[in-house]
Amino acid sequence: MGTTKRLALSSTDTTRSDDTTIWNHFAPATHGMLLLDVTFENNCIINAEPILGSMHRGAEKLFESRDYRQILGLANRHEWLSAFSGEVGVASLIERELGLDVPTSAKWLRTLLLEVFRITSHLAFLAGYPWHAPEISAQIRQSRESLVLHIRSYTGSRMHPMLTQIGGLTHAPTTSWLLELAELTKLVATQLQSMNELMVMELANTTNVGVLSADAVNRFAISGPVARASGVAIDCRTSTPHFMYSQLSTFKSVTQTTGDIPARMQQLCDEIAISSKMVTEITTESGKHITTDVNVLIPKVLRVPEGEFSFRLETPLGMASWLLISKGDKYPYRLALRPASLHTVLALGTVLCGHTESDIPKIVASMPFITGDADR
Asked: What is the widest separation between alpha-carbon atoms in the chain?
């Protein structure tokens, strides 16, 4: 009969018990904790079950007591590494149902920020992988920090930008900020590429480890880089008209084939390279509209027409979607979030089975998710 351990994957200090293994350095559980019930037989994992609920904050109920302006402050507090995705996703849904035409300048800037946060999010997960060579994590963290500091100079915040308002953005960046951003993203992409050979060498011993098949991707409804690393070309940026992806010559969606640890890490690197090129192109376009308004005037009280409405957005971790039920009031009757992270977390049991306990940190670190996004 197998033995069971409860593994606490946490970035915070946690009390150690006799039957619990704790990894305090674990990056994918940033700002919270994920528990896994893992059953071993002869040191081989035969079952792994994620335990959700320890971080539940009732965000969807809180939405019901906020007006449509106020809910943006809650909507960006789930996918912490790309909080902008939450606020702009909900705002886009509300704008569509109110019939608001967002200025072209705001559309370009929103697209730009989504890609910048995609880069910083992917860099965070690359840095959190348990590399043996310390210079890999150090360089990636340094590269990410340069971008984060630049974003903060525009938004005033490292984590929750609160740039989005219904009808556009709160304010536009300066021309010099855009030019510096383009140079920074080029530099980050170059630095990451320079480490590619060393990263490939380190990942060579993880080939065929933590394989997630295309069938499992579809079964768990996984999206984002994890799905694309398994050869499933799902990317809703191509079908979201509220942004400017259709006008970008540098935009493309790439995939891997093997669905193992090296494939998922390479997918993150490839997407950073593509997003960096998009940022360069978008900064040029945004510069053409820098003197125009980035928002429209809206009524003091907003009331979405009665009905059921949905919207989806490609975040760095995959497809997030929202379901809004309105009774015609100034508060949403119901606003539900389908987070990308939840489906990735639910697939952990599948990718861990057949491996040993020593494989767990590498496998989980290659499956990007945010605990608060899964357990909102």
From this structure: 70
Interatomic CA distance for residues 373 and 376, integer angstroms: 6
Q: Where are the domains of the chain?
A: 3-51, 59-374
The CA distance from 221 to 344, in Å, is 9
Tell me the C-alpha distance between 331 and 328, whole Å.
8
Helix pair angle (83-98, 104-128), 10° resolution:
150
C-alpha 94/C-alpha 96 separation (Å) is 5
Residue 289 exposed, middle or buried by CB count within 10 Å (0-12, 13-18, 19+): middle
- pTM for this entry: 0.91
Taking alpha carbons only, the member of 189, 265, 284, 196 closest to residue 226 is 265
CA distances from 296 to 106, 163, 171, 209 (A): 10, 14, 11, 51
Q: Which residues pair with 33 in a beta bridge?
A: 10
Average confidence (pLDDT) per 10 residues, the chain, 376 residues: 64 37 39 76 90 74 90 85 92 96 95 97 95 93 96 91 94 95 96 93 96 97 97 92 94 96 97 97 90 89 96 95 95 93 93 93 93 77
Tokens of 162: 């609160």
> Which DSSP helix (H) or strand (E) runs through 39?
strand 33-41
Instruction: Evaluate whether 135 touches 370 at the Cβ level (below 8 Å).
Output: no
d(CA 348, CA 48): 7
CATH class of 59-374: mainly alpha
Please say whether the beta carbons of 229 and 256 come within 8 A: yes
Residue 339 gets which letter from DSSP? -
Decide: helix, strand or coil at residue 182: helix
Question: Which residue in 130, 204, 138, 203 sits closest to 365, CA to CA?
Answer: 130
User: Given the DSSP bridges, would you call strands 44-51 and 164-165 parallel, antiparallel or unpaired?
Assistant: unpaired
